[in-house]
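FIELD: query
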Amino acid sequence: MSVQILFGFLYMLDLAIVVFIYLKTDVVPWWALSLLSLSKRVHSIFVLRLFNDCFATTLLHAALVSIICQKWHLGLVIFSGAVSIKMNVLLYAPPLLLLMVKAMDIVGVISALVGAALVQILIGLPFILSHPASYLSNAFNLGRVFIHFWSVNFKFVPEDIFVSKAFALSLLVAHLSLLLVFAHCRWCRHEGGLFAVVRSKIIQLKLRVSQRNPSSTKKVLQADHIVTTMFVGNFIGIICARSLHYQFYSCESVKITKISSSPLLAWHQSKT
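FIELD: result
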C-alpha cells in the first residue's frame, strides 16, 4: 500500500509537469487540460501495476520542462536518467538532437551529449567494473529479436516475416526516412530545410575555429516548437516500432501521444 501511495504521488507529479508543459505551449485551451487526467489505463499503470515506465515518463517530462526553459544541459542529464530506466525513451533522441543543433553551437551540443554520457557511465559503473563486456553488449541491445506475441503495430504480419532481418531493416529505413522528411519539411522549414541548418552550423564552426567569432551562439526556441517536435518524433518511432509492450503503448501512446500530445497536435494542426 505504501508503494502504491508513492506511485500515486508520482502520477500527480507527472500530471502536474504535463499540465505545465501545455501551459507553456499556449496552444490548447484551458478546459482541454482536464482530459489529461481521464485515462483509466494510465491510472492503472501508475497506481496498480507499478511499472518502471512511470519513473521514465516522469523524468522525460521533467527533461522536456528543462529544455523548454532553455536549460539544455540539465535537460540532457535528466533525459539520460530516463533512458537508463527505459530504452524506449530513445525514440525522443532524434528530434531532441535536432533541437539541440538548432538551439546551440557545436560546442554546446557536444558538451550536453558528454554530460548525458557521463550519467550513463555513472549509473552503469558497478556493472562496467565487474562485467564490462556483458554490460556493454546487453544494456543497449539494439539487435535483439522481438517476440511476435508482444507486437501491437504488426500483429497482422506473419511471424516468420516479423522476426526476419529484412523486416527489421525495412522498419528502420521507414523510421529514418520519416524523420528526415519531417526534419526537412516541417521542423526546419523556417530555416530553409535540414540541410540549411547543417550548413549554417558548419559555417559557425569554421568561424569559431578561425577566431573571428569565438563567442558561443544560442537560439531561443519556442516552447510550442520544442514540444511539437518531440511529440511528433516520438509518434513516428511508435508507428515504426516492431514490438511494444502493452504498458509502454498505453503509457507512451495513450498518455503522451493520445492524451498529452494529440490534443496539442490537433489544435496546432487546426491553426496551420
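FIELD: remark
Residues 253-262 have pLDDT under 50 and may be disordered.
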